[in-house]
Amino acid sequence: MTEQPTSYERPQGVDPTDARGALLRTQGPTPGATALPPAAAQARTDGTPDTTTPGVPAPRPQEKDPAVSDAEHSQPAAAAEPDAHRPRPAPEAVPLQPGAETRAERPPDGRDRRTGQAPTAGRQPTPMRRDGDRLRFVGAATRRIARGLDLDEIVMGLCRATVPTFSDAILVYLRDPLPVGDERPAADRVVLRLRRTDRIPEEREPEPGFAQLGMPPPETPELSELSAAIAELCEVRPGGALAEVLRGVRPVFADTPAATAALPELLGAESRLDIPGGQRAVLAPLRGRRRVIGAAVFIRRPERIPFETDDLLVAAQLATHSALGIDKAVLYDREAYIADELQRTMLPETLPRPTGVRLASRYLPAAETARVGGDWYDAIPLPGSRVALVVGDVMGHSMTSAAIMGQLRTTAQTLAGLDLPPQEVLHHLDEQAQRLGTDRMATCLYAVYDPVSHRITIANAGHPPPILLHLGGRAEVLRVPPGAPIGVGGVDFEAVELDAPAGATLLLYTDGLVESRLRDVATGIEQLREKLAATAQLTGPDHPPPLEALCDEVLDMLGPGDRDDDIALLAARFDGIAPSDVAYWFLEPEDAAPGRARRLARRALVRWGMEDMTDSVELLVSEVVTNAVRYATRPVSLRLLRTDVLRCEVGDDVPQLPRLRQARATDEGGRGLYLVNRLARRWGATRLSTGKVVWFELNRGS
């Protein structure tokens, strides 16, 4: 019985679907039309007998559910297109070479097993079918390349999309360094660096029904080790063959005169890579928006059919999409780097070490793709051994948010230097935010800790409340007025003064730590409080947990879906200064004040067992008090603090700050601050709302 041709018959010589889901048509003599291999036909028809007759159109096949097929690799189904009935190979299969299927199906006499006809020479796949296959391949490849966000992903996408579907190996060269945007390169010389290579692995196993590509012996260095066989760097000589090919932009075959002279320059004089002849290699320049940024070399093995002329268009499309993607990736990386550096420079590099308090901090961006935000923290030393603790959050995740954050942080530091109350600082920050723009909103919490009085004053502007962890392990959310965010305008801010016992830890944070898509702010604050209490139980009631370990434990409470916002964290451990380590006096602004200050300082040193420092302390105290009483109109304050150093503070009601200057030989005065600068460990002067404070520190035992 003669078997009738079916609707899934196709012309011979057409390669089956390749491993990436794209179809590559090849040239060469094609035998007469035959059906698919019996095994493939049986698998395609699922055992259903053939009922079609010649001259009668085949019934339209039922289309598959688009949700089942892969979006990138799916093929359109059509009644008039025989490709719709073609079997799909396994993902890692290697395409059949021309004639492989024919050799597998035909008996030794050369006749077709199904039709019994002799092969007919001269039949070729129609150009429309080849162009459609190339179009589908280019679409799938460009989608894969476009998925990359950074430079490495885009280059890898190009390699994986072309090997083994389009070529057996690929070399990708990029300029070193890569130009960014419209900026001109620093030097006129162009250097190409081998960025990535890819090839068909030697150990690839063919799938059933597909032919194996001919592989060279292991000792052949053709494609086995590409990176080791060619030079890593290539300097493009001006006016050379490689420069002319790159300037031409269009891909060329390797056997053309221009490419024949350019490839040795690109691969290196000592290259051990043997480029196959006969249009089996394509050199494609990679041109971005402004200039050529590299080159790609597509290589096929001698066992594989050579490239066709239309394949140059495919190479041009791949090179164009890859170059534009690399351009965008470089621009994105530069913008992300600038934004990241901008924010990092606006955050404190190191925290100060004020007297009576220990500090630790953490900052985490929202995500790797959005590393810039408006969260900030700060610790500002104040006169009288006090310290200001600040944490804030500007709305948004952009360079604008980071810039606004930097301006508000600078304003807060300036206002803190004036020793303004916390509520006044927030009021001036609110005015500054309104001057920056109508939509510049931020939250901020400003606290001032006094280690001498063991008190802390807090003002809040719409920020989450701080949590105080006591020495015994109890954690409480401090009740502070919430206030309105900075930038609203026309609102008053309130400040509350609370106890800050020694050994307690104050935790300031931004809402990114307690709020996410999976939980609200109230739930997150309660979870944070419980986390702090549980961590404190691990070290016992008499030993607070270390600050650095405590910050790490707090961040461990974040889950995979909790990184929706930036996180700024500032922890302060209150050690305080004991009352027995503080000596405080008021001196009338009269001529006898310096002598009385020396006697009071001597008595305090004797009481503390620091008699060896008497001479230095008396000399410096006398000089500073003399400068104060010369211009003061109200009593002058004198305070000595004994911590790891001896600190002396002299305050008066004159706002002008003293300046260090070199006295002339004929001057009777002007040497007091010079002596302080030479003998003291550190010294400084701070302007207050009621005057100024001049202070100096001496190492104990000096």
TrEMBL record:
Name this protein carries in UniProt: SpoIIE family protein phosphatase
Compositional bias of kind Low complexity: 26-55
Pfam family, one: HATPase_c_2
Annotated organism of origin: Streptomyces phaeoluteigriseus
Biased composition (Basic and acidic residues): 61-73, 102-115
Region (Disordered): 1-132
UniProt keyword terms in alphabetical order: Hydrolase
Keyword Lipoprotein in record: no
CDD domains per UniProt: HATPase_RsbW-like
SUPFAM superfamilies: ATPase domain of HSP90 chaperone/DNA topoisomerase II/histidine kinase, GAF domain-like, PP2C-like
Entries under PANTHER family matching the protein: STAGE II SPORULATION PROTEIN E (PTHR43156:SF2), STAGE II SPORULATION PROTEIN E-RELATED (PTHR43156)
Domain PPM-type phosphatase: 357-574
